[in-house]
């Protein structure tokens, strides 16, 4: 994520986690052909990637399944918004060379 944020790689890091149940995996079959697969998307990882790519579009309604306690999620979203605002303000500051 840091390399992507610095522009040292064009490919954003993968953050999705896939689980397969009831079958051997990995094998020759693509995950779309498996009987039971689960895709887990860590919200924090997705928020950080969107924040660094400038595509912060996440909202509390964008996740179809929520298991976390809503208060915890709300606090985390607020913290990421604050972190994003801080990051944006840091991007606008002129670079000052360190003292000799």
UniProtKB/TrEMBL annotation:
Residues 1-53 form the Interferon regulatory factor-3 domain. SUPFAM superfamilies: SMAD/FHA domain. GO terms for molecular function: DNA-binding transcription factor activity, RNA polymerase II-specific; RNA polymerase II cis-regulatory region sequence-specific DNA binding. GO terms for cellular component: nucleus. It holds the Pfam family IRF-3. GO terms for biological process: immune system process. This is IRF5 factor. It comes from Rhinopomastus cyanomelas. The gene is Irf5.
């Amino acid at each position: 994520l840091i390399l992507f944020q610095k522009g040292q790689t064009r490919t954003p890091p993968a953050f999705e986690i896939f689980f397969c149940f009831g079958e051997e995996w990995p094998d020759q079959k693509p995950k779309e052909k498996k009987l039971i697969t689960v895709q887990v998307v860590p919200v924090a990882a997705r928020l950080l990637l969107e924040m660094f790519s400038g595509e912060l579009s996440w909202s509390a309604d964008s996740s179809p399944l929520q298991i976390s306690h809503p208060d915890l999620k709300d606090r985390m979203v607020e913290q990421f918004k604050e972190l994003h605002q801080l990051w944006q303000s840091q991007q606008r500051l002129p670079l000052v060379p360190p003292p000799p």
